[in-house]
Amino acid sequence: MDRIDAGILLALLSFGANAEDSPKPTTTKPPAKPTEHGPIYTAPPQPLPEPEKSYLPLFTLNYPRVQIPFEITLWVLLASFAKIGFHVYHKITIWVPETCLLISIGLIVGAIMHSVHEQPPAVLTSSVFFLYMLPPIVLDSAYFMPTQPFFENVGTVLWFSIVGTLWNSIGVGICLYGVCQIPALGVQDINLQENLLFASIISAVDPVAVLAVFEDVNINEQLYIVAFGESLFNDAVTVVLYNLFNHVAELPVVDAADVFLGVLRFFLVGLGGMLFGLVFGFVAAFTTRFTRKVREIEPLFIFMYSYLAYLLAELLSISSIMAIVTCALTMKYYVEENVSQRSCTTIRHVIKMLGTVSETLIFFFLGVVTITTDHEWNWGYILFTILFAQIWRGLGIVVLTQIINPFRTIPFNFKDQFGLSYGGLRGAITFALAYTLPNTIIRKKLFITATIAIIIFTVFIQGISIRPIIELMNVRKTNWKLGTINVEIHTRLMEHITAGVEDLCGQWSHHSLKDKFMRFNNRFIRKILIRDNRPESSIVALYKKLELQNAMEVLDTISGDISAAPSLISMHEEKASNKSSFKPKRTFLASDLTAMHEILSKNMYKIRERTMSYTNKHTLPNDSRAREILVRRHTSIRRSLRARSFQGSESARSQKYFSLPLGQSLDTGYATESIRLNADGDPALELHNRSVRPKPRPRSKQPRFSTTRARLDPLQELHSTVNMEDEVRAEESSHRPSRQSSSSSNSRSRAPLQRHSSLGTPSVGEDDPEGDEQQLESPPPAWTPEPPDRGSGGPRNPLLRRAQWKPQDK
Amino acid sequence: MGSTSSTLSKIPNADELIQETGFTSAHLARLFERFEALDKDKKGYLSPQDFEAIKELALNPICDRIIGAFFSSGQEMLDFSSFVRILAHFRPIDNNRTKEPNSPDPINSRINKLKFAFQLYDQDKDGKISRNELLQVLRAMLEKQVTEEQLESIADRTIQEADLDRDDAISFEEFRKSLEKVNIDHKMSIRFLR
After folding, report:
1. pTM exceeding 0.80
2. Residues 6+ apart with CB under 8 A from A110
3. Which residues of B touch A586 (CB under 8 A)?
4. Is the pLDDT of residue A32 over 60?
5. Nearest to A578 by CA among A769, A426, A730, A802
6. Local structure of B171: helix, strand or coil
7. ipTM value of the model?
8. CB nearest to B190's CB, from A496, A509, A586
9. Where is the composition biased (Acidic residues) (chain A) (predicted)?
10. Cβ atoms within 10 A of the Cβ of A580, count?
């Protein structure tokens, strides 16, 4: 084998060598190419100069062949290493935004390159940027936009982004033009169009770093979502303006007709983009309805459709960013219901990865370019640029807020406005747009220099200082993370009340509008776009999806986490000591809260909030929630075993006992419920079971190993022949306990019934699984949800204390 | 609007209502028109059936509780002033109201809004939200399939979070305290049309 490999390698190398050498006359006989005219020899017909024999080259270096992909790969790797490096020292990332660090590394590398007189690869051309680097960034932002807050604030977001960007561009442009008239600065040759062009470039806000800070300080949701949305949409506006002004800049004279056409084009472009995006989003959703058999390429559809939307929009010169944004927003909701769990995860990860890579590359490149290109530095122009940019942004925010505040239910106060305007950092897109300015612009170098200056200024100075300032100013905060369950329930109730009273008064407001839309959605759109559209299965389906996804993530972390073992023991002891006392109060895992929030948030407008808010642009969310949900899932399975006494009489309306399918009594319904839960839960768990089982074994230490084994095995036992989610859904649809095909699940279903009927002492029923788990033995008859608690509780030891399930008897 | 004054004249105690509820006369007139529109049989008062006839309201998960809030103490007839008084809870809070120490809180004060919401939980009017009552409301709001044990654990957690005096029920004070960070005005206000 080796010799064959070596032979192949040699052959390849020699081909390469030959390819390289072919332009020069070779000393070997040239290969004969058979054609109809007979073999043609490619060598010149003169006698060969040197009759010496040249041997097959053993090692050749063929750099030009791989130069471009090779260098790109190296760059990406380098930038990624830089990112790894930042997180080594945790404190840095708190105070210094990642973009700063990236630019710094870029500067260092640029310095190195400069000292060896290398040029950075000329890869950042206009087409490369617009066609390859921009779409992932935008898709990333759009896909992870928290939809519900976004739609509540969509008016404000659009207002700030569209009008705000226009305001900034035109204001700064005109001011700079005024400054240009000053002879002392020596920039008189920049005309108005070019100034406007430049101004539009630098008004593209990219508060990536700021968003991370906002999230860390739990800033109030309104501010957060407006900043997020503004950055996204103003990219769209900036690109449109850029193209517009670019075109205009080439015209020698601009008259009123051009201006009017410009404005018209602006709207056309924006709305056209949105329409495009919607169409593609729906088509993508529709396609995924049929992808059940081709799960592996499901993510591909998402990417292809959004990219296609982008490209087609570029083709027609309408706003491609708007297209891809609306496509992503529309698609997300429907597609995430249709695709399998794995595809869902893949999609998210890949989008995040691509977006991060793209952005990292651009910032890195920025750093390098700063050192290596020749700059044209003009103190006056640049300082004025920075000054005007800041002033106009601040002014713009204030004025716009004043106008829009009356229309908002929660108006922005001055601190919010300050946060918004100070958080207006410039970033990747600004740089790329400046870098790819056409060369017809005379002062292109100046523009590039000025852009780099303003980016570095905002990113470093504002980016680093915003955190202390925000904290000092005590901007209004929202408790972003899980608030109390109380708050959630009561606010839901209040929203329902308010919506009801509005209906009573015959009024419309955004509550009822949303309701109407969701009802329309449920009735028509979902039927078309979503496979197996059964609205009643939403929560359970969501649970499974979330928990599957998160279970996989949990297992990833668990296997690599060392602290699991000690916590096992500590929890062991804790459990032992607590077993004896029946505390009436039970402690809830933080996981339960997450899950509770999930349940609760399902109901107001029957909106499914699929993605958790991946609000930090540089990372996917941490998996604490994930872990918690998994644990909670297991505990809910466990709980379903417990006999409990029903408070049967409270509900006045038995027909509206919602957790039961209709027409069943409480007992059978309960069994159905738990069975359904079993069948739903376990095949799903089994699904991830299969995928991750190989992993923990080689890596885990003994206690953990037995943990996972104990966990996995009982789940194995609970294996039903169903192994795909959709089949589970199909099972759900039949709703009846008899649907399980495997006998194991039947026996399983009998087990809870038995426990159930033994009633009386809930603590007994509960002790059994606990007793089993305590020994960490091979699987007890049905359930060992405990181990996952422990295993996953490890890394978050203080937070995830095991729940002590003492059901309340009433 | 010319019709306002004519409508107003039909309303008994219009001035008193305006004073008490803080609605303007335009608001009141519109509400009266709505009242009459709902009162299909022209009885002069509203009955629960009139409320149930509102289509959108019927789709609300807690519609019966809302209706029950209007028809408190079991009465079957709702006259206009009671109608308006209850609706007054939903007026946005006036931030620039001068606080006179002796006058009672206006109907739309934060406390009263909270009391209104509280009473939707507390059907038996014992001043506490018991676990059962909480479960009922949860069941009503969580229309989709949530398993019973999930509901119960949610209810348990809710009580656990809020219950400071360990009586396994949520009193109004505890309720209020748990919501102290929430912007009630935003949640429980309607901009009444003129």
Report:
1. no
2. A120, A367, A368, A369, A370, A371, A372
3. 156, 160
4. no
5. A802
6. strand
7. 0.89
8. A509
9. 765-775
10. 6
Both tokens of B150, joined, read 């999930």
Q: Is residue A319 assigned to a domain?
A: yes
Contacts of A668 in chain B (CB under 8 A): none
Query: Which residues, in sequence order, are bridge partners of residue A40?
Result: A33
Place of tokens 């509550």: A511
Q: Which of A234, A242, A270 is nearest to A423 (CA)?
A: A234
Nearest CA-CA distance, residue A760 and chain B, Å: 17
CA A810/CA A792 separation, integer angstroms: 32
Asked if residue A199 is part of any domain, the answer here is yes
Nearest-CA neighbor of A613 among A439, A480, A786?
Answer: A480
Residue A250 lies in a domain: yes
What band does A369 get if pLDDT is binned at 50, 70 and 90? confident
Rg (CA), chain B: 19
Alpha-carbon span A112 to A594, nearest angstrom: 49
Q: Choose among A781, A758, A787, A750: nearest CA to A635.
A: A787
Amino acid in the structure at residue A210: V
CB-based contact B157:A588 (threshold 8 Å): yes
**Cβ distance A222 to A160 under 8 Å?**
no
A692-742 residue pLDDT tens: 333 333 333 333 333 334 333 333 333 333 333 333 343 334 333 333 333
Asked which of A117-121, A462-466, B139-143 is least confident by mean pLDDT, the reply is A117-121
Largest Cα–Cα distance of chain B, in whole Å?
A: 58
Please list the residues that pair with B129 across neighbouring strands. B170
Rounded-to-integer distance, Cα A254 and Cα A112, Å: 46
Tally of domains within chain A: 1
Contacts of A536 in chain B (CB under 8 A): 144-145
Hey, which residues 64-123 in chain B have their CB within 8 Å of chain A? Answer: 66, 87, 90, 116-117, 120-121
Contact A522, A755 (CB under 8 A): no
Q: What CATH code is carried by the domain that includes residue A413?
A: 1.20.1530.20
From CA A289, how far away is CA A284, in angstroms rounded?
Answer: 9
Judge whether B53 is closer than 8 Å to chain A, CB to CB: no
What are the tokens at A219? 């800033």
User: What average pLDDT score do residues B77-104 get?
Assistant: 73
Spatial distance between the Cα atoms of A496 and A603, rounded to a whole number of angstroms? 10
| DSSP character string of A479-545 | --S---HHHHHHHHHHHHHHHHHHHHTT---HHHHHHHHHHHIIIIIHHHHSTT--GGGHHHHHHHH
> How far is Cα A306 from Cα A313, in angstroms, rounded to an integer?
11
A23-41 burial by CB neighbour count: b if 16+ within 10 A, else e? Answer: eeeeeeebeeeeeeeeeee
Average pLDDT (A52-77) is 82
* Owner of token pair 């590398």: A109
* H or E stretch at A568: helix A564-580
For residue A11, what are its two tokens?
């052959």
Question: Which tokens sit at A470?
Answer: 């925000």
Nearest to B57 among A493, A504, A650 (CB): A504
Q: What is the mean pLDDT of chain A?
A: 65
What pLDDT was estimated at residue A497? 82
Nearest chain B Cα distance for residue A120, angstroms: 54
Here the tokens at position A744 are: 């194991």
Domain range spanning residue A280? 124-473
Distance of alpha carbon A419 from alpha carbon A394, whole angstroms: 10
CB nearest to B54's CB, from A410, A493, A504:
A504
Residue B170 has what pLDDT?
84
Element (H, E) at B159: helix B148-162
Q: Best-predicted range by mean pLDDT among A545-549, A621-625, B52-56?
A: B52-56
Is residue A35 included in any domain, yes or no?
no
Q: Interhelix angle for A444-456 vs A428-435, to 10°?
A: 170
What φ, ψ does residue B38 adopt, rounded to 5°?
-75, -30
Which of A217-226, A299-308, A774-783 has maximum average pLDDT? Answer: A299-308
SS (H, E, C) A337-399: HHCCHHHHHHHHHHHHHHHHHHHHHHHHHHHHHHHHCCCCCCHHHHHHHHHHHHHHHHHHHHH
